[in-house]
Structure formats: structure tokens, C-alpha cells
Design goal:
InterPro entries: ABC_transporter-like_ATP-bd, ABC_transporter-like_CS, ABCA, P-loop_NTPase. The protein is α+β, with helices and mostly antiparallel strands. 42% of the residues lie in helices and 21% in strands. It has two domains: 142 residues, Rossmann fold (3-Layer(aba) Sandwich), CATH 3.40.50.300; 75 residues, 2-Layer Sandwich (Alpha-Beta Plaits). The strands form four sheets. It has a four-stranded antiparallel β-sheet, with helices on one face. Strand 6 and strand 7 form a beta hairpin. Helix 2 crosses helix 3 and helix 8 crosses helix 11.
Length: 266
């Protein structure tokens, strides 16, 4: 195996210099400040002493830990999101060309998760990033190519579009029905079944929202649009949307295939 052009066995030392790793669980010293962490790791990376503070402050700023208050705060007093930023900062200290991120947003609230996503997006330039995650929305937001594993084996790899084309077999239809429509009302479902019979499946019915999938096989997209518009004109719903197969559905399809069952059985 090669890392940034270096043989991982014969040129191990050079390869490791080009590699940064953010583990799933943050490793930190509670009594050390953010700045002390970064200066310590900068020294380990070979940064000369007179430049260590400057180097640490620059990296801290890039990950949102650069203010005096945070830079001088003990790691034990940081929030989960800030500790995650510290782990990323440590991995970036040597300006690695290859960066591994293991479950980078596990356990973080949505706002913190978006903050970490922004950091990852901003550091992609001239760098290979390999990210492991169970969150398909994270993969969709950050990854150019996606590989899906099941039972310890890589089952597929490709762009989002490739995977959807290869494994996605349905369209997802979302409708917003009039306010006073009862949740038990099956008007939209009956209307779709009339045209597409057993190709239509109910995904969810909640409040004023109805979600269905429809099998792509044998369905002309232009005709589907025409059918949906006619339903809107008839007053069955006032808003609608159509999406290609989601990455969650792709993941379920691949996992089901590896388990030898139908996707609906998982």
C-alpha cells in the first residue's frame, strides 16, 4: 500500500508524516489547555520551539478554537463539539496529505455536526480525506465517492449518482394534503394505485404529509409528472415533490443483498 506516494512498509516513516488520523473517540488530557495540546503535538511533529505557539494558534483558528478564551481553556472544560475540533486540529498539525476521520460527528447535536462538516469541507483542498460513518446524510454532504461495507467486505464503491443508478429502484414521492384531511384518508394512495397499481408503496403518513415510493421499472417519468399534476389540479394535495432513491435506501438494498433477504425484511 502507498500513502501520498510512499510505500507504507519500505518508507514507513515518510508515509506516517503524510498521514493524519482523527479517532472515533477523542484522546485528550483534561488538565492541558487547547494551546498546550497543540504545542505539545507540534513539538512531536518536529516543529521548532520558537514556532510552536504560532503554529498552534494558526491551526486552532482554522478549526474555530482560536479565540483567547478557548485557546487557553482546559480540554476538560470543552464541550463535545469543541473536543472534536481539537482532535481534528491535532491531526492537521503536520499538514497531512491523507486524513482519516472515524465517525467524526458521532454523538454531536445537529448544530455542532454542521460546524464539523464545514471544517472538513474547508480542508479538502489538495488533501485526500477518508471518512467512515453510519450517517448517509453525512456521506452525501461530504463525499465525492462512497464505499459501502457489509459483513466486513466492501460491497460497492462509486459516486452518489453511480450508486443510485446501480441500486436505486424507486422514486420517492412526497405530498402535502389539505389541512383538514384525516390521516386515515387514502385518497392520494388510491389515486396513485389507480395508475401504477402495485408499484406504489406507502412509506409514511404523518400530519399533512404523505410519502410513497414507486418502482422505476416501466415508469415513464414524463407520464408520472403528468399524473401528479392532474392530482394536484383535482385538489388531492397542494404541494408535491419527487426525489431519486436516497442513499439510505441504497444502503438498505446492499445490506439486504448481503444478508440474502428482501430490503423490506430488514
Amino acid at each position: 500500500a502507498y500513502i501520498a506516494g510512499f510505500d507504507a512498509v519500505e518508507e514507513r516513516s515518510d508515509a506516517l508524516k503524510e498521514l493524519g488520523i482523527v479517532p472515533q473517540f477523542d484522546v485528550y488530557y483534561p488538565d492541558l489547555t487547547v494551546g498546550e495540546h497543540l504545542m505539545m503535538y507540534a513539538a512531536m511533529k518536529g516543529v521548532v520551539q520558537r514556532k510552536q505557539r504560532e503554529w498552534a494558534a494558526d491551526i486552532a483558528t482554522k478549526v474555530g478554537l482560536g479565540s483567547d478564551d478557548v485557546f487557553n481553556r482546559r480540554a476538560g472544560a470543552l464541550s463535545g463539539g469543541m473536543r472534536r475540533r481539537l482532535s481534528i486540529a491535532v491531526a492537521l498539525l503536520s499538514n497531512p496529505r491523507v486524513l482519516f476521520l472515524d465517525e467524526p460527528t458521532t454523538g454531536l447535536d445537529p448544530d455542532m455536526k454542521r460546524g464539523i462538516w464545514n471544517i472538513i469541507e474547508n480542508m479538502r483542498q489538495d488533501r485526500c480525506i477518508i471518512l467512515t460513518t453510519h450517517a448517509m446524510d453525512e456521506a452525501e454532504a461530504l463525499c465525492n465517492r462512497i464505499g459501502i461495507m457489509a459483513k466486513g467486505t466492501m460491497k460497492c464503491i462509486g459516486t452518489q449518482s453511480d450508486l443510485r443508478d446501480r441500486y436505486g429502484s424507486t422514486y420517492e414521492l412526497t405530498f402535502t394534503v389539505p389541512v383538514n384531511t384525516d390521516t386515515s384518508d387514502e385518497g392520494v394512495e388510491a389515486y396513485l394505485v389507480e395508475s401504477y397499481d402495485d408499484k406504489v408503496k406507502v412509506v409514511s403518513t404523518f400530519g399533512g404529509t404523505r410519502v410513497f415510493t414507486i418502482d422505476k421499472e416501466g415508469v415513464d417519468l414524463a407520464e408520472l409528472f403528468e399524473t401528479i399534476v392532474k392530482g394536484q389540479e383535482a385538489g388531492l394535495y397542494f404541494e408535491w415533490g419527487i426525489n431519486n432513491t436516497s442513499l439510505d435506501e441504497v444502503f438498505i438494498a446492499i445490506t439486504a443483498e448481503s444478508e440474502g433477504v428482501e430490503a423490506g425484511e430488514l
